């Protein structure tokens, strides 16, 4: 209730009617309801659990939430009885479902509620008694806006799910980033990195005004990214989901001249262990079409070469690694040096 202090929650915490749940910056929470439905709260969101009942005699379900700030993402299992209720309320709208996947966003600045349906359908009406008679049925692939003092808005078609430009790319750079194929009508794009394909365990959430989305640093691992385009109404469109492999493997290069016409080449990998192997390539051009040297399976972080004649040389290093029987490689930037000029 409003006068109760907030306390930290952890995995397995049980919640009940009257509990208010607040999710802070860069935090995410997923709730598993008794009937198997899921409610996910991204950063900066607050809900009040109004009802969480299951009648013993009739097995009727009554689950009601009040969205006070931010957004709520739901995946509701089909409700079996006409008496079953799943409802989300904001200051301007009431959204009720029978079994669907949808998202509700309360924008206090605009005094407006956005509903976006990705599966099933949602009945939306205004929260005010004088306007509750106008009900808009929002089907999958559509959303609507309901402002304070106005009846529920008519459905608006959601934007198509964006596609990744390079879906098979292993994320090896210091910062994880994605390039999406632009979607017509999009004003922004949203990406969520999750540990599961269903998007219940969110670990990173970013929005970008361009088709390039920078997610920041991320530990090695196997993840999923959920992508959506945002339209001029600020409605989030349909989502696409891709598997993401993260393997940090940056390489920095250095070279130096030694005595007696010897040259030392060294490299440093951002993540090195006993399983890391290297390939050294030296050529007369940056395309390496006919390399002078191509030395594979190096375990050390450097080598010395002697007897190079006068000329301009180019070199690079490929870092190679097998991780859980999967092959991963990254190629360093090309470096050049000149002898005898």
Give an account of the 3D structure.
This is FecR protein domain-containing protein. InterPro entries: FecR, Ig-like_fold. It comes from Paraburkholderia humisilvae. The chain is elongated, with a radius of gyration of 27 Å. The strands form 5 sheets. Strands 1, 2, 3, 4, 5, 6, 7, 8, 9, 10, 11, 12 and 13 form a 13-stranded mixed beta sheet that branches. Strands 22, 23, 25, 26 and 27 form a 5-stranded antiparallel beta sheet that branches. It contains no helices and 27 strands. It has 3 domains: 20-157, Sandwich (Jelly Rolls), CATH 2.60.120; 176-246, Immunoglobulin-like, CATH 2.60.40.10; 251-339, Immunoglobulins (Immunoglobulin-like), CATH 2.60.40.10. The model has no long low-confidence stretch (mean pLDDT 90). It starts with 19 loop residues before the first strand and ends with a strand. The chain is mainly β and 341 residues long.
**Spatial shape:** elongated
Annotation, overall tally of beta strands = 27
Helix content: under 10%
User: Rg, please?
Assistant: 27 Å
| SSE pattern | EEEEEEEEEEEEEEEEEEEEEEEEEEE
Low-pLDDT windows of residues: none
- How far apart the termini lie comes to 79 Å
| Beta fraction | over 45%
- CATH architectural grouping of the largest domain: Sandwich
Number of helices: 0
Q: Mind sketching the topology for me?
A:
Layout: E1 20-23, E2 29-32, E3 38-41, E4 45-54, E5 61-75, E6 85-89, E7 93-97, E8 101-107, E9 112-119, E10 121-126, E11 135-139, E12 142-147, E13 156-157, E14 176-179, E15 188-194, E16 202-208, E17 212-216, E18 221-230, E19 236-246, E20 251-258, E21 262-269, E22 277-283, E23 293-298, E24 302-306, E25 311-323, E26 326-331, E27 335-339
Parallel strand pairs: 5-6
Antiparallel strand pairs: 1-4, 2-3, 3-5, 4-5, 5-8, 6-7, 7-10, 8-9, 9-12, 10-11, 12-13, 14-17, 15-16, 15-18, 18-19, 20-21, 21-24, 22-23, 22-25, 25-26, 25-27
